[in-house]
Write a structure and sequence with these properties.
Layout lengths: L25 H15 L9 H8 L2 E9 L9 E4 H15 E8 L2 E3 L2 E3 L2 E4 L6 E13 L5 E12 L5 E8 L5 E3 L2
Parallel strand pairs: 1-9
Antiparallel strand pairs: 1-2, 3-7, 4-5, 6-7, 7-8, 8-9, 8-10
Helix pairs in contact: 1-2
Length: about 180
């Protein structure tokens, strides 16, 4: 009986070449942010909130500046800085909202429909994005449902992390959704 030795060359780190990942698309970046924002409102209000917040926070750059409108206890815009500030806002959002559906507002002209994500290239790199949104959400404590038009403005790093963000919801155009 003859013995055969078979040598198998496995690709190891020295020989393997990683295929570079294509940069995320403008629409993909915005859709991922909306998906994670909506997921926080899917939290059941009882279990561990941390995994929802952590997935949302993974979208942000450590040097984040985020601006939002005031809540019922404030006047004027609110600025959140760094992970700690945005995490504070995200926890407030998750504990206050349930069943949210923030989404890109679709537009139709000349028999063509799209959700526009407008982009620009900042001189320091990355992407600047603007999108018209519509927010549908339920206030967790009262179960009151609302719809509001709005807009979101993002500046993403070259790695696709949010470095600056402004979220507008137009309270003057907000409507309560009644059964």
């Amino acid at each position: 009986m003859k013995k055969f030795t078979i040598f198998v060359l496995l690709a190891c780190g020295a020989f393997a070449q990683e295929t570079p990942k294509p940069p995320p698309t403008a629409e993909g970046l915005v859709l991922n942010w909306l998906k994670q924002l909506n997921a926080m409102a899917d939290w059941d209000g009882k279990g561990d909130l941390k995994p929802f917040i952590d997935r949302f926070m993974a979208l942000y750059d450590p040097g984040i500046l985020q601006f939002t409108g005031p809540n019922e206890n404030q006047i004027g815009s609110v600025t959140y800085t760094g992970f700690e500030g945005v995490r504070h806002w995200a926890e407030w959002f998750a504990r206050t909202h349930s069943k949210s559906e923030y989404r890109i507002q679709w537009q139709t002209q000349q028999m063509k429909t799209t959700g526009l994500v407008l982009s620009a290239a900042p001189p320091w790199g990355g992407q600047g994005l603007a999108v018209e949104i519509t927010a549908f959400y339920t206030i967790r404590q009262s179960l009151r449902k609302f719809a509001a038009p709005g807009a979101a403005f993002f500046v993403f790093t070259p790695e696709g992390k949010i470095n600056r963000m402004r979220l507008y919801l137009l309270k003057d155009e907000m409507v309560e959704v009644l059964p």
